[in-house]
Input
Amino acid sequence: MPDMSTVGELVLTEVTDGVATITLNEPARRNSVTKELSLAVEAACLEVAANRAARAVILTGAGPVFSAGGDLSGLTSQAAGQPASLRDLYRGFEALTTLNVPTLAAVNGPAVGAGMNWALACDVIIAGESARFDPRFLDVGIHPGGGHLWRLQARAGRQAAAAMVLFGEALTGSEAVVHGLAWKCVPDGELPAAARVMALRVAGRSPELVRRTKATLGASVPITNAREASDLEQVAQEWSIAQPAFKEGVAALQRRLAERGAAAAK
Output
């Protein structure tokens, strides 16, 4: 049976077969980024991190919109001097980035402004055909926040980031693939299954090895020379060779090769 809970009802979490699905669950407000939603996502991430059965995460949105961006009423309240914290808006994004299991965003509709940050905080983005990536910060007179520029530039490159944020270019799901923002684009009806296939593949691998590899990916970001990168990977690779999963994997490979050889000899 799936382990399912509601975190303040703004976010739904479900863990099945090692895959945790986190759903932004405020479709009436088009899953706009609010302090409440961000804190609920943070709570969901903490819940997933504490659940050793969760080996991969899928993030998606309820309804036809993935996330319509920052809640303007909350932002105007802050501009008027009322107590609020932009940091609270970012806590959900940061919680996603710090999860030690692979994260995949299944973008099922428009991702606007800060709503793009949910997807950018994940390791991999899969887009449905109805997805639309539109920063739109400057259109409402606000500077991008929550690491938006850094993450967008790291994923799609400086030119794409400049075209989208400065020049107001938006990308469809298929265009996002062309520019490196998304890994693949699939028909909307196939999006949940496509995301789950990838997540289940992760869940079937050694959880310790997956976590160590994700950590190495993160640690590789600031490295600027090949020798340092090789040294970093060597330490992790030597660790992996000593783990039971390596011996089991080699034995399984040898069995498959032997079976293929026997079949070919018939």
